[in-house]
Write a structure and sequence with these properties.
alpha+beta; four-stranded mixed sheet; 2 helices
């Protein structure tokens, strides 16, 4: 009978150790699960932010294209265009606008169908720039020294979501005056 009691006592102490080991294992598995969930949440936020950045870039590119079409309409119109009106979205180099620090809904142009006030563009006429060198005169055999082009800078801005902001610029160069 005494041997039977010793066996029972040994089994009881082993069950307690097994319980502690099982609890430690469950704690480790819980920590791994919580860490994985946090990682998944961060990755989900990053994916959403990347999607919003893509939307903002696409809308800024569309606004830039509209600005380039606007400049084309200005230079192909036989009437001279006046950049003198302030705050209308058209500026000259002397206006020294800072595209990073203007009120876009108030000072930008917005002709994009379905766009909101955060999707806008501005057109800056940078003036006539001389081109050094010799060029051939159009429709004649005569040569002219140098030449000149009219340069425009189009800047578009789009904002999507809470933190997606894109600013895109292009230079438009033409021989036709505004």
């Amino acid at each position: 009978m005494s041997t039977h009691i010793q066996i029972q006592a040994g089994l009881t102490s082993q069950r307690g150790v097994s319980l502690v080991i099982a609890m430690v294992m469950l704690l480790v598995l819980t920590l791994i699960g919580v860490s994985s969930m946090n990682t998944a949440i961060v990755e989900l936020k990053m994916a959403g932010s990347m999607q919003q950045q893509g939307v903002a870039l696409n809308r800024a590119d569309e606004a830039l294209r509209m600005g380039e079409e606007d400049v084309l309409a200005i230079v192909t119109n036989p009437a001279a265009f006046k950049f003198a009106t302030g705050g209308d979205g058209y500026y000259v180099n002397a206006d020294n606008i800072n595209v990073y620090n203007i009120d876009w809904p108030a000072q930008g142009l917005n002709t994009i169908p379905g766009a909101n006030a955060d999707d806008a563009y501005v057109v800056e006429y940078l003036g006539v720039k001389g081109i050094p060198g010799e060029t051939k005169k159009v429709s004649t055999d005569g040569r002219i020294i140098g030449g000149a082009v009219h340069t425009f800078r189009i800047t578009s801005r789009s904002e999507a979501g809470k933190s997606a902001l894109r600013l895109v610029q292009s230079l438009y160069v033409t021989t036709a005056p505004p």
